[in-house]
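Dear colleague,

Following up on Tuesday's group meeting, I ran the structure prediction for the two-component complex that the binding team flagged. I've pasted the input sequences exactly as they went in, so you can double-check that nothing got truncated or mislabelled along the way. The structure tokens for the whole assembly follow below. Feel free to forward this to whoever is handling the docking comparison.

Inputs:
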Amino acid sequence: MTDVDPKWEVRMLELIAEVSVLKVSQIRPEHRLREDLGMDSVCSLELISMLAEEFDLDITVEEAAGVATVDGAIAMARRHFALARS
Amino acid sequence: MSALEWAAPAEGVDEAIVSSVRRFAQRELDPLEIDEAAQIPTRVLAHLSALGVFGLTVPEQHGGLGEGLRLATRVVAALAEVDRSVATTVGLHLGLGTRALVRYGSAQLQAELLPSLASGEWLAAFGTTEPGAGSDLSKLKTKVTADGDGLRLDGEKAYVTNGGLARLLTVTAASAGEGGLAKGMAMVAVPMLGRGVVRLSEEKKLGLRGSSTTGCLLDGVKVPQHWMLGDPSTGKAQLDHTLAWGRTLLAAGCVGATTSALGRARDHAAMRRQFGRPLEEQPVIQGQLASATVLLGAMRALMETAAAQADDAALHRWSVSAKVFCSEQGWAVTDTALQLHGAMGYLENSGLPMMLRDMRVTRIFEGANDVLITHAGALELQHPAARDDLPSMAQQVADAVARRGQRLREELGVRAFRRPELLHWLGLAVVWRDAVVAGCRHFDSGAWQRTLCREACAARRSADRRLHPADDQAQILARSR
């Protein structure tokens, strides 16, 4: 991952909205993937998997399982973008 | 001990209940008559009520027996040995129909409804499938919304088992806004005779014809707030628990019906002579009967293992394997039983076609097996099953599954969750692993364990062969259009 679309956060929210069958405007950073967005544990991993494919990130199952919120997913992606640049 | 004779210990009162249900079924049920009439006689339902079957899992303070899933599975299996439609009607009532109310319902609602449900005066149904939403529950269109002091439901449910008999319907509904959620799912109790509830006509089905299946419209149905079952903020977890009960009870029906099918096959093989000796003395038939006996034993062991789980996550996991394995192997063994009967098995009055027809849907409802197998793979990838204290032969099978999972984790990381064909491939191995683990824990016979492991290896090889490259599949399908 070298050229990150500057609008990646928007795209990420679109994907989260797609998986949780909500509008982007309804998604808030503090939303918990399971309790607030109605995902079960497998569904939340599918979401992270979708993000990994979209942004070409190598994310382990363990790391993905630790993501609990929308904010957490964005932070995880940010870490990987930084790693890719370094 | 043979699989047909085997039963986990259920002493005293438990055994008395199972025995009395089995005696009743053998004496009072006429499966062919029920299949032909496409309904269960009223006197049968009344007798089951008198036996206390409908209150088996209802707390004693509300008129039930206060029993758990384990005894419920044994009772459903005993009924299914004789008639699958009756077993389905009872199993649905005890599991999907009333479980959410028993576990999550408010004290007020339980006091209002459970006595009638325990006595059998009311039967319960469960509605989750919709014309546009089957296994994908994120697509539920039925909505529950706040309406003054109460709740309002709008939507349509399809394939509601017990729909034509029930007075209570437990429905799943999207609960946007409820409990502070952006999006959620809730279960709500609905009176079938309430205003706005429209029961649709009976479906004509391939099998389970005595079991009622209808659609149901919910048109502005209003219920009091306390008819919400549990906390909507944890609605998905509550639904998972309820579905796990349903899957385990479905597995129990498969165990009972397969016990009956295999018993008939063995009786026939002992009696029928071909080429100068009974079928049961011919090696090919012996091989089929031995495999079927071991598979039935593994089915029962899986059912018992699932039903014994107290932890929700463990129950969820075991119930998936139990449902898939018992329905798939129940179908295979029943087909073998029909085959062993020769042309006689093809005649309706032998009862075997009905048994096969009744078994077919178990691979579809309560979660289509293909979906559940993929889910089992995803669960394994997320949390690999513990491999401590396994019988040695089961250990080998479990190690092989763990290696598969590890390979996927290392090669694809979290992206494996976007590869359903690989999850399915892993999930199939998981289901067989669970059958081997449960089976080997219940049976210490080396021959028995070796046969089960051979069946598991054959299933794994079959799954491997079907894992075609995606490009090949796409090309074949494109050219066939």
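Chain B has three domains: 12-119, 124-231, 237-470.

Cheers,
M.
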